[in-house]
Design a protein that fits this description.
Elements (H helix, E strand, L loop, with lengths): L1 H19 L10 E4 L10 H7 L8 E5 L2 E4 L2 E3 L6 E5 L5 E5 L27 E3 L4 E4 L2 E4 L1 H4 L11 E3 L4 E4 L2 E3 L5 E3 L5 E5 L2 E4 L4 E3 L2 E5 L2 E4 L4 E5 L9 E4 L2 E4 L7 E3 L7 E5 L2 E2 L21 E5 L16 E2 L2 H4 L4 H5 L21 H8 L7 E2 L9 E11 L2 E9 L8 E7 L13 H9 L3 E5 L11 H15 L1 H4 L1 E11 L1 H12 L20 E5 L21 H6 L3 H10 L16 E5 L9 H11 L3 E5 L10 E2 L2 H15 L2
Parallel strand pairs: 1-2, 2-5, 3-6, 4-7, 5-8, 6-9, 7-10, 8-11, 9-12, 10-13, 11-14, 12-15, 13-16, 14-17, 15-18, 16-19, 17-20, 18-21, 19-22, 20-23, 21-24, 23-25, 25-26, 30-31, 30-32, 32-33, 33-34, 34-35
Antiparallel strand pairs: 27-36, 28-29, 29-31
């Protein structure tokens, strides 16, 4: 009994103590906000990084509000799993101006040096593993703001950690802008803009640049890889664009800083500033004998494979197919950043978002949603092509198949500035067309967040070939196929209909043995000429134009592509015959760019045209009542005339 009383006394005392004392917790926050005005958790980025738990096993998000942060930011090796996410790519700026040879403030640094050297000039230094940088500008302004002679090495971003991802960032500097250090580091740069002068991409790491714009500010060299012996990959550029200042005329792709340098450009758009020989031998050493410099399907005026140095290589199709993110990065420790990271979907343009915006001026509108007629089949999520690990899908809406009476088909191409939107936005049109006896197919294609021009054109020509290959299954008359698109999709539909089987835009097809020619065009408020005073896609900055994102640079730097993608460019060619065209326009003048010039050529060549403009209609009028029904009535009357 005494023992029982003692136990009861102990439990009673413990419960009272617990009731009187607060519960002690050790919280580790997983997100912070940085704002210079004091509205966040911290005023500096470094304070936020320092507050993250050492060797964190969960991803900690640090949101950084717009502003200019003058910091020499260091993410040390014991700070892991951190995402630094800016409010906007151009508005969240981390800046510094240290350069090699600059006296160290206070006399000497931690290594006993009195002056900065290349490896200590960084604005941002990443030593920790699993760090993500997104929506930031990181710059070293040493050459921009300093009076007197030009300084040399001045690093903006220096990365030593493993599994580092940099997305939608601007890296600005001059010589040595980006230092990708250490042979054990793996780094992925997606949708970034990087500029510099001499060897501004350098280092020992294994690195992939995907859909990045690389701008040269001087006649010099872009890369200086120092890949270590036995390292299977060095720098790999996938679907990037190389541009330059207007004064720049002579730039090499790279030179071997070390004897085992490895650099490969795959499907890269190269401006006229790239030298015909492509690669330079560093100081006439023998380093070139053990390097691996290669290209695959380079495009543009700087792509001259027959003139490259004889120690560089042009990859074969099987060799190029080996350059996947999984194979490049998945070493013994295992890292495949492909799932969920290689394609960042832009969802800013949807039927709902367009409706909310349009009803501000047109409160009477409603979203078009016709009923599907009895007997119409919907075959959804049909894969029609796989490129670079990404599978493209389409949905087919078709009446009962009659082998003796095949039907005309309409390929429906969605809009969204070549950057956003998806095939679901054309479902209402597909239903209406299928109800009227057409085979209607809504299709996805690669957007600028995934691949630059002309990837979308190649995809859509493949989709046309796919329709012909599936003619028996869907009951399609292969001599009666129309391309119909809205906004950016209208431009693409017009390009399909004015270029025919022109080999320059065919691409390497997923479906072979069939033609990509279409017999009719329905262009719903899509541009017909980019290089046109009314287009609204002019000589503006990289960050403000949808076309600039699609072409990988502003018109001043990529004008040849802007003209190549304009349907107006092809209507006078004798090797192609444009298809008859129906143009349906809103009241937005800039969406009429190139229309009158194209119609004049059509008239001179005797090719059928129709044009209708909806007064006081917003740009995405085709999505809404009261414009949807007349849009479809005009379309079907036109198709009935030209697809006899």
């Amino acid at each position: 009994m005494p023992r029982l009383y003692l136990l009861l006394f102990f439990l009673l005392l413990t419960s009272r103590l617990m009731a009187q004392s607060p519960v002690v917790q050790f919280p580790y926050p997983t997100s912070f906000t940085v704002a210079k005005d004091g509205s966040g958790n911290f005023k500096t980025i470094q304070e936020a990084v320092n507050s993250v738990r050492d060797l964190s096993q969960v991803q900690v998000l640090i949101y950084i509000k717009n502003g200019t942060y003058r910091e020499k930011l260091v993410v040390p090796s014991w700070k892991t799993n951190i995402s630094l996410i800016g409010e906007s790519e151009a508005g969240t700026i981390i800046t510094g101006d240290d350069y090699a040879g600059k006296p160290f403030p206070g006399g000497i640094d931690a290594t006993g040096r009195a002056k900065f050297i290349t490896y200590t000039t960084h604005t941002v230094l990443i030593e920790g593993n699993d760090i993500i940088l997104e929506n930031l500008t990181i710059e070293n302004t040493a050459n921009r703001n300093r009076q007197g002679p030009r300084v040399e090495q001045a690093v903006a971003l220096h990365v030593e950690g493993d599994r580092c991802i940099v997305r939608h960032c601007r890296l600005l500097g001059h010589q040595d802008t980006l230092y990708m250090a250490t042979s054990t580091s793996r780094q992925l740069y997606q949708d970034c803009y990087i500029e510099g002068t001499v060897d501004f991409l350098f280092g020992e790491a294994t690195v992939v640049f995907q859909r990045c714009t690389i701008k040269s500010l001087a006649n010099s060299w872009i890369t200086a890889a120092s890949t270590r012996p036995g390292q299977p990959f060095g720098f790999v550029f996938l679907d990037c664009a190389l541009t330059a200042d207007s004064s720049v005329t002579s730039v090499y792709l790279g030179r071997p800083w070390r004897p085992y340098a490895r650099t490969v450009f795959i499907r890269t758009q190269m401006g006229p500033h790239i030298r015909p020989e492509g690669w330079d031998n560093w100081a006439k050493t023998t380093n070139y004998k053990t390097t691996f410099y290669a290209e695959y399907q380079s495009r543009g005026p700087g792509a001259t494979p027959q003139q490259r140095v004889d120690w560089a290589k042009q990859l074969t199709d099987p060799e190029a197919a080996q350059y996947t993110l999984k194979r490049i990065f998945d070493s013994d420790s295992g890292w495949n950043p492909a799932p969920g990271l290689t394609y960042r979907r832009d969802t800013s343009f949807t039927v709902s978002s367009a409706y909310l915006n349009a009803r501000k001026k047109h409160p009477q509108i409603s979203i078009a949603d016709p009923k599907l007629a009895k007997g119409v089949t919907v075959a959804a999520n049909w894969p029609y092509c796989t490129r670079n690990g990404k599978t493209l899908f389409l949905d087919a809406f078709y009446p009962p198949v009659n082998p003796k009476k095949p039907r005309p088909a309409v390929l429906l191409i969605h809009g969204g500035g070549w950057r956003t939107g998806d095939r679901s936005m054309n479902v209402a049109m597909a239903k209406q067309l299928a109800n009227a006896g057409y085979v209607a197919v809504t299709v996805d294609y690669r957007l600028s967040t995934d691949s630059l021009y002309p990837a979308a054109v190649h995809d859509l020509k493949d989709a046309v070939r796919w329709l012909r290959a599936q003619a028996d299954t869907l009951g399609i008359d292969t001599s009666r196929i129309a391309a119909m698109g809205c906004s950016a999709g209208g431009q693409l539909a017009a390009l399909l209909g004015t270029t025919g089987d022109l080999s320059a835009l065919e691409g390497s097809g997923c479906t072979s043995g069939h033609s990509s020619i279409v017999q009719a065009i329905v262009d719903v408020d899509g541009l017909l000429a980019f290089d046109h005073p009314e287009s609204g896609e002019g000589d503006d900055s990289r960050a403000t134009s949808a076309a600039t994102h699609w072409f990988g640079g502003p018109k001043t730097e990529t004008v040849a592509l802007w003209r190549e993608a304009s349907p107006l460019t092809y209507v006078n060619r004798t090797d192609t015959k444009p298809a008859p065209i129906l143009i349906l326009n809103s009241s937005v003048d800039r969406m009429h760019a190139g229309r009158d010039a194209l119609l004049a050529v059509y008239k001179a060549r005797g090719i059928y045209t129709e044009v209708y403009t909806f007064a006081d209609a917003p740009h995405p009028f085709w999505l809404f009542n009261p414009w949807f029904e007349p849009t479809m009535q005009y379309t079907m009357a036109f198709l009935k005339r030209v697809l006899r």
